[in-house]
Write a structure and sequence with these properties.
alpha/beta; TIM Barrel; eight-stranded parallel β-sheet; about 40% helix; about 10% strand
Length: about 325
């Protein structure tokens, strides 16, 4: 089973009109039939609301200027997943049953909130947990909770309160998009499962959107996971990205993390860019990746990177029931 730890399915459908249930929109690669045909069995489906200051690629006709507007937008996206009848896995028990019965053509999701502004206050976290959210990344750009990409700063007072509430509710922390100081603040207080859903190696492509080797090592030390993004500007400084670039980031982060057991995919293939900005022309091209990874890793390690490592992480990190 292939696992993809970051897809903005509902944002694409509601914000951009690229629906999930039919073939991929022209120039794009992600849809339910395409994922199923490629052997993807589990995705981390995001709730992403575009702030008013978002750049053009991630700014839709619907943007928010306050927490309540963000809440309404994310609620619409959660409702979209229900309308698509995309099964949401909420516990270790549900995950185990799904994996035991999985066959190619089946697809389920774990819900990930990218940017915590839809949570109007930390006291509201329980509502989102009941709706199925199991992973939260506090930032995208700057939020009321943390500094983010191109928005330096630490956790705010609300951010500290949110992380405390997340630990209490057994919600997984996603470090992707967190500003360096917010990340350091999180490492200082976090005592729960931790991951980076879609962040590549800063040593290869500089910038605060990527993670340092030290971050990769610390996430691995805590038993966490690192998902590699397929966006070309996350893969290389300039020029056309290929699957060779994906392998390059996997190898670098695996070395920093002490092994490929902490690596997986977090393609972000529908995150504001099309197929021309990715190393894939169709999701079927994913079938070429295992053979490329096999030049460097064992068969079991390659199976882990393609999906098994994420399944193992969720099997330890989701609530028991």
């Amino acid at each position: 089973m292939i696992v993809d730890a970051h897809l903005d399915i509902a944002w694409n459908a509601i914000g951009e009109g690229r629906g999930f249930l039919g073939p991929p929109a022209e120039g794009y690669v992600v849809s339910r039939p395409a994922l199923q045909a490629a052997g993807v069995g589990l995705v981390f489906a995001t709730l992403y609301a575009a702030p008013a200051e978002a750049t053009k690629s991630m700014r839709t006709r619907f943007v928010y200027e306050n927490g309540h507007e963000a809440h309404l937008m994310a609620t619409a996206e959660a409702n979209y997943y229900r309308a698509c009848e995309l099964p949401l896995l909420r516990s270790r028990a549900e995950l185990a049953r799904y994996v035991r019965g999985w066959r190619k053509g089946r697809l389920a999701a774990v819900m990930l909130m990218e940017g915590a502004d839809p949570i109007e206050s930390p006291e509201q976290l329980g509502v989102w947990v009941e709706r199925g959210v199991r992973i939260i990344g506090p930032a995208w750009g700057r939020t009321r909770y943390a500094g983010g990409t191109h928005a330096p700063g630490g956790l705010t007072e609300l951010g500290v309160q949110l992380l405390v509430a997340m630990m209490r509710k057994k919600v997984i922390l996603d470090l992707s998009h967190l500003a360096d100081q917010s990340e350091a603040d999180a490492f200082g207080m976090w005592r729960g499962p931790i991951m980076c859903s879609h962040s590549n190696a800063r040593a290869i492509v500089p910038g605060d959107r990527q993670i340092t080797d030290a971050t990769a090592a610390e996430v691995a030390r805590r038993g966490g996971m690192l998902g590699v993004s397929f966006y070309e500007h996350h893969l290389r400084r300039s020029g056309r990205a290929t699957l060779d670039d994906v392998v390059k980031h996997v190898l670098h982060l695996a070395k920093a993390a002490g092994g490929p057991e902490h690596l997986g995919l977090g393609t972000d293939l529908d995150g504001g860019f099309n197929a021309a900005q990715s190393p894939l022309r169709t999701l079927g091209d994913l079938k070429r990746l295992p053979a490329m990874l096999r030049r460097h890793f064992s068969a079991a390690q390659v199976e882990g990177v393609m999906g098994g490592n994420w399944l193992g992480f969720l099997g330890k990190s989701l609530p028991a029931a």
